[in-house]
Write a structure and sequence with these properties.
The protein contains 15 helices and twelve strands. With about 375 residues, it is of the alpha/beta class. Helix 10 crosses helix 11 and helix 12 packs across helix 14. The chain is globular.
Amino acid sequence: MREALLHAPPLKAGARFWVAAVGKAAPAMALGARDALGGTIERTLVISRDAQSLAALAGLTTVDSMLGDHPVPGEGSLAAGRQLLDFVDALPPHAEALFLISGGASSLVEVPREGVTLEDLVSLTRWALAEGIAIGELNARRAALSSIKGGGLATRLRGRPARALFLSDVPRDDPRVIGSGLMGPASEGPDRVERQVLASVDDAVAAVAAAAREYGLRVGTRAPRFAGGAMRLAARFVRRLREGRAQLLVWGGESTVELPANPGEGGRNQHLALAAARLIANDERLLLLAAGTDGTDGVTADAGALVDGATCARLASAELDAAHCLAAADSARALAASGDLVHTGPTGTNVGDLLIGLKLSPVAAQRLLRRHGGPRSRVL
């Protein structure tokens, strides 16, 4: 965010900014804008999902912050939606409007269309989560129920010029889909919003690949972003990892999980990791990480899981069965018992999910660690 604004065209003399940041990455995006624009910012509104990330803004003047609800919208989301409308309506004539949008905005802020209730929004979200609906389709359905999504907020600007910067967590990085189109093209009237996607899961994949190459690993990536059912994705990924030449394989995207009637606890990344653990059981060469770049997975506080060839053996020692836990969508309980959950806390960003596989013999892994002076891993 900071770099994008520092390398933007020079500011007009006397420019003053009003900044609205919405999404899981909103606090970090707002801080980046402040680093670049400094005292030219007159007012900042930040709407995010957790108090921990908002704490970074404590003590800053001209900053108002709010918590919305996620992944299911709630009263906090409605209050945040009203605040965002008030922000737009109060924009003074001299102010440059800057909107910073990241994943999570769909749930965190909402103003329903006339006749649509909060219960309608909650029902749609819970149905989509249970049925494993892809993020693009869910966001399109959300926009249809909203007066500020699907270009509604841009319409509220009434042709006023503005700039919108995005971190994308959706396929094709389309501003019409990011945050359910919270700052997509105006649904009515003129649109003078300049839009730019700053980062996506492709950037995260590239960063992982670059770091792996610094360790001298042969790296494989997959150009199309992954989507679809977590179980099938796990099978495709493990097969590619096992049969390919790459020592490290990294994919990015977002999988889905269809939930049973009474699901347990977990998230799509934990479900995928547990499915993969069955496929790599007893293979001491393989290690697999499935995690959300935002540091959360589903309704859990964990980012995902890191599994290896001994995960299923540890589950058996805990008197749990991977197949049964997958059928019950209870991956969190299983991976907690095997000691494989990954907890990072909120990361300050959100560009989708990463799937990373490592294929090294124990001897090669030890040699790699000695060469680079890294810590010993529990897996090794």
